[in-house]
Amino acid sequence: MAIFNYQTKSMITRNRVKCAEFRKLSSFPFWDLPFPSYTSDNSHLFFHFVLFIHILTNCSLFISGILVDPGEMEKKMLLHLTILILGILSSSSMVKAEDPYKYFTWTVTYGTASPLGVPQQIILINGQFPGPKLDVVTNDNIILNLINNLDQPFLLTWNGIKQRKNSWQDGVLGTNCPIPPNSNFTYKFQPKDQIGGYTYFPSTGMHKAAGGFGAINVYARPRIPVPYAIPAGDFNLLIGDWYKSNHKGLQQYLDSGRSLPFPDGILVNGQTRTTFSGDQGQTYMFRISNMGLSTSFNFRIQGHKMKLVEVEGSNVVQNMYDSLDVHVGQSISVLVTLDQTPKDYYVVASTRFTRKILTSVSVLHYSNSQTPVSGPIPAGPTYQVHWSMQQARTIRWNLTSNAARPNPQGSFHYGTITPTRTIVLSNSANLINGKIRYAVNGVSYINADTPLKLADYFNIPGVYSMNTIQMSPK
Ligand SMILES: *[C@@H]1O[C@H](CO)[C@@H](O)[C@H](O)[C@H]1NC(C)=O
Ligand SMILES: *[C@@H]1O[C@H](CO)[C@@H](O)[C@H](O)[C@H]1NC(C)=O
């Protein structure tokens, strides 16, 4: 790992075990780290724990019994054997309730497309741009073999998936070794107690600028009610700024010390114009994500109000909105009832906080409509920062609604926690060796040769230090 220290203007390099060396060790368990096996509730784990304790006590009793007191031993053995058998029975009946496994094989390749009218190199997954939609249910075990056929190392990150107990599969260079060209890696993860609309995208290089991203929908288990009527259908809208130059061109641009240029357009699901069709009178869920690199957008549908029901996997207080700001990386879900006269309506996303405004116009088509879109494209906020802040403040958790579990989530009493340490962070952008480097409290980050999570997991010393960053900016 190398850290550039802005105070001393020196590069601290601490190379230990690099990814390539990890891979050379055939006995090294990196590709097969223990997969955390959860089931729907923790009593299962507790039973295994009880079982384990009984096996331990039985063994020790057996040994000590032979040596010390055969008479007592027999009685104790019988008791413990009974508990052991009960334990095995209850445990095996629980194992049957294990959450379903879903298997995927995804191949990443280059392709050519002309989303903005000029042919450009894009990144495909199984031949698709955007990549395949990952439709799963809370607690599904996902086994996803990702084959990298690009000419560069590649990783996908699962944005918003908590990766509980297996954060080394989060798919960023700080946690995973990149997948080298022409090789593969099998992600194993579980959206444990999660619901909602999420996305995945490449975390390496500027690959996200070329595609390789897609939607993740985590549906609630059938026995867990969602706090709204089940919609007639749902649409994923992957909306983002887009550049005509490919990922390598953009990387060269940044490496030459310039900042990211202004985007050339906005794409919705890989196209400049998409049509969403529904039946009059029905309610549909629109899962909207900002897949862009740099630009926030405002989203609105002509003549229709949106009921915000879910934000980043949390059920929220259900307010109505005419338009909503979505910032880079964010995902929101709204319900829209097709309660207007049968016609086609504009679906608009326009850039926020930009001098020049890019607008993408798609279509909401009523299945009984004979009338194309008409009228002015509905206007949205452009530079109003305060408006955006005010709107963000209206998005609140619904603390009485369940999420992925029947009981309301979260039992922290934040007000009663005494702060022990206050950390003040300040960001900056500097030109270092001719390249723009962003920093937090004067320290910039360079991808480690040894992913930090692996260093942590395998106790590899010297890869990172907990004291690199000052607690407050200088
Ligand atoms: C690579 O893919 C093959 C099947 O194509 C699979 O058997 C193997 O386990 C995968 N390797 C990794 C590291 O995921
Ligand atoms: C919160 O969720 C509950 C349960 O679904 C619902 O009854 C209630 O109306 C919601 N509250 C708000 C303010 O949206």
Automatic annotation (TrEMBL):
InterPro entries: Cu-oxidase-like_N (IPR011707), Cu-oxidase_2nd (IPR001117), Cu-oxidase_fam (IPR045087), Cupredoxin (IPR008972)
Coiled-coil annotated residue ranges, if any: none
Keyword terms of this UniProt record: Membrane, Transmembrane, Transmembrane helix
Keyword Membrane on entry: yes
Every Plastocyanin-like domain range: 108-221, 235-369
TM annotation in the entry: 45-68
Top-level taxon: Eukaryota
One MF term in the entry's GO annotations: copper ion binding
Keyword set includes Transmembrane: yes
Family: Belongs to the multicopper oxidase family.
Name listed for the protein in its UniProt record: Uncharacterized protein
Annotated organism of origin: Lactuca virosa
Lineage, top ranks: Eukaryota, Viridiplantae, Streptophyta, Embryophyta, Tracheophyta
